[in-house]
Each structure stands twice: as structure tokens, then as C-alpha cells.
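Input chain follows. Return C-alpha cells only.
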Amino acid sequence: MIIDSPKDNHHDDVTKFVNHELSVDLDSSNAFEGPEKLLEIWFAPDKELVPSSGSIEGLRSVPRAEWEEMLDIVKCKVLSTLSSPEMDAYLLSESSMFVFPHKLILKTCGTTTTLIGIPKILELAAQYAGFTDKQPWRVFYSRKAFMFPEMQLHPHGSWDDEVKYLNGVFDNGGSYLVGNLRADHWHLFTTDPAFEHVPTHVDCAFQDETMEVLMTHLSPQHAAQFFTNRLPGAEKFHRETDYCGDDSVSISSGSTEASNDPGHDLGSLVTKYAKIDKIYPGVAQSIDSFGFTPCGYSCNAIVNNDHYFTIHVTPEAQCSYASFETNVPAAKYGMTNLEVLARVVNIFRPGRFSLTLFEATGSPKKGGLSKKTAGIDGYKRTDRILYEFDGYDLVFVSFEAI
């Protein structure tokens, strides 16, 4: 785990758990489908609205063993977790899960059956957090087109089947195809709010933003950063990489030989080598990362205790793919989403990539992407679409290397 600690001690509140038995034996030789299925369930607009009938911790009160049972249904395992006073970040064998008191984000790749886990999620939310209403406040499910759709398990074999499944569980859902069907495109299912949200403070509008960058055809030179085997690759990384002189980044005291394993150790090295820890420079962050054998990489980061970013990389040339997702409000830290996007793209230099930015209509529009989409050096824009949903604005943009 890497800690970036500029001028505060937010990271002192972050704790880590590692599943050694799974982490040591994990092999990515059969991984193939990089594009993730992204499920986001909001049981309430904010943590202040967690029902009094449940734990004040809301969804965070669900024991890890119960989440692991749900993830077994989805067909993935927990590698490690990070916990702050505000949220829990689960690094999975197939991507990530983030748990807040009032919402859950589940992002899984490969042949996972993400939607099949929904009934168990609703059951746990009712049992431990008191969310007993049949309909959560809002639900979002999205993905880009699969590279190998024929390998997916039901109901993920087609978008129509996924929408049919979701409509069987949730009311007031809508399905959208965003982008050119013959090029980079993106599928979205979203529900209308189940109830009207009245902010607890008169001047406090609902604020939320999520930026996702989906990249394919990675530059071979940049993809090579994610091919190092754990052993003896980790030793090779140590010999060839010099990290001296960087006082803003240190290995946390919890990331010792006794608490870690080769996969997590290699992940930490790749995080620094690829400058993933510099995407949000000068911001307090804890990064939990894993390097797969023979290749591949995943990381979760808790930023300033209450926000996250996550990266997942499948670097094989025949199906190269990387994703970046964040809900960090860039403007809060004196930067724009466009600057963050440029740093991410420079890590991978993809041949093609698409960006989606969801912003609540009450969020400050200072991210540098909502009003217009400026260019990225070395890329031309191939598509730009704006959507207005109930309470949210969506920007979808696709790019191609020049």
C-alpha cells in the first residue's frame, strides 16, 4: 500500500486487510475480458439518511464474510481491503467494490455475473442497514461493448438480456446506447429517483460526480509496465527502479513483509513506476495495488478519506485494455478533470479511449469538461454526446490517436 501524505494525517485513519491465501496463488493467465460491468446502487442520497432502524454505519456494518458470500455469487474474490472513517475499498480478483454507508459500487471484469449479485445486495442492505424499501433511491449500471460477448454468462450475454434482468428487479428504469454503434459506444441503465431528496441544509445542493476513462489498443511500450512477473520480477523492479528523493510517497507501516505478499509488493512498485500515485499530486491518498502473474494490474485508492479512484489493466496486445474511474472532485483540489484525464492517458497512451463524466446538476461545473471538451495532445475527438437525466448531466466523448 502506498501512502501520499502531503501536509495532513488523513492516511493515519486508513487500515488494510490482505487475503494472503488467495493473493499468493492468484494467476491471470486466463484473464481475457477487460471491459468492466459497473453497478452503482444508491440506497439514499447521503449518509445522513441511513435509516435509524439499522446501524449508523449503514452498508459498512455488513460483515466482510457476508460481502464475500455475495461476491461468490458474482464469481470473484477479495484480495485486500482499505478502510477509512468514511468508506471501505475492496480490491477484487476481478476489479473492485466500494462501500459507503448509503451506497455501493461494484465493478467487475471477465465473466463475472455482476447483476446476479443484486438480490443478495438488497438482502444485506435490509438486514444490516435498515434499507427495507423494495426500490433503492437510484441505480446505475453501465459498460462498454464487450470484446468477447459470446463468453459471457447469463444475463450478460447481451445488453437486452441485462436490461430485462434489471427491469425485473427495479422500477422506473431506462436503457441508453451512447456513442456510435459501429465504433466506441457505451451502454447505460439508470432508474429515476425513488423519492424526492430535500437537502438537510438550505444551501447544500446534492453534489456527485464520476469520471470514467475506458482505454483500448494500449501503446506496447506503456503496456510493458504491467507485464513484470511477481517473482523474480519484483526483484528486477527493485534493481532497475530508483525512487530516491520522493519524500511525498512512502510505503505505509501496515505494508510490511508480514502483512503483504509478492502480488501486493509488485503492485506498489508498479504504482510508483507508472506514476499512478501522481494522478492527484499533493492530495492525501492511500493506494492498495496488486500486480498479477504473468501480467495485469489493479489498484484502489482512498483519497482524503471520502473519495476514490480505481485502475485496472489488461495489457496483452490482442485485447489490451485499461480503465480509470474516480469520484474525486478535481476542482476541490485546484485542478480540472481535463488535467486528470491527461495524466491518466499519458500513463497508457491508448490508441482509442472514451470518457464519461456524470455530474449531479447541483455540482459545481469547474471540471473543465462539462461546457466543452478541449483536445488531448496526440488525439483527435471522434464523438461527443451530451445527455440530461433526472438530476444528472452526462458527457460522453471518444478519442483516437493521431
